[in-house]
Amino acid sequence: MPASNVQTGSPLTRLTPFYPPQWGVRGSDNKLGLRQHSTGAIFYVDPNHPDCNDAGDGTDPEHPMQHMAAALLLCAAFRGDEIHVMSSNAWQYGNPLQGNLIPVSENVIVTVPGVRIVGVSKSSSTGVVWTPASNGGTCITVNALDVLIEGFLFTQGIVWAGCNAISAEWNGPTEFGDNLTVRNCMFDPSVDVAISLNYVWYANIHHNTFWQCDDAGIQAVNPGHGAVDYLEISENILHDCANHAMDLPGCDNSHIWNNSIYNTDAQAGAAATDEGILTTGGSGNQVFDNYFSCLLPAAAPGDYNDLNTAAATDAWIGNHCMNGLAITNPT
User: Fold this and answer.
1) Is pLDDT above 60 for 213?
2) Domains in the chain and their CATH numbers?
3) If 63 and its partner were Cys, which of 26, 154, 185, 198 is the partner (CB 3.0–4.6 Å)?
């Protein structure tokens, strides 16, 4: 799965080999970290580590932090900070005898611009497991520019009912979710809305897998001109997302290409109205080279026009249906 592509090496030593530790702060004498520097720090989060503790400085993988929220408090705006969340065995089909059964289970709000949140997965992993901290909770809310999220498996887990994975939102005159990047993540069938965008520009969403999300794969909130613009959505798998694979009314000037969208109803010739890609009310989008499990336009349930609806000024070019290439905008 995409998340297995996320692996990182050891951080470079950016300071002199030794500097005095801070009294009572475990890991503060580790040469891999940064205290005062113009480039970023790497902070480690591992709730399964026997020595995890939010009182440390988080820069030593042998003394990681326990919670994502605590690590975010240590990040600085646009410094290039990364939070590395270490692999767990918390997936429902994991082997409990292998231990490491604690997932990330938090509803965090990211307000630090430029931070990178990376799940460090084993090569055979589906991604670092992240569940909400409440029924129907949102795992990550992004209110900051230039945030990157990759390498996670989002799921409700065995405790909660329902889950929203990522929500990027405008939150006042100084907090925007613009320039968000989400890549190499998986969203399992217990997820309601995988990625929600509320007044977000320049988001880049690629190489993710959306399995049967209950409400939507990628969804624009508060639709209208200017709400979600200049998106790049590419090379994702969206398999049987209920209601909509991509619900993007009011989306402007965006590029959507090389995505695979499977819909059981459309494949069988049953009604699947706008359960594929919807861009009504927007303008200037280019939607090309996507793959749909439907037939070419035929004025029938589940066909290309039923599954998708375009904005009037969109350009839908060379999209693949089960029986040929669609060369018109879906209506």
Assistant:
1) yes
2) 2-326 (2.160.20)
3) 26
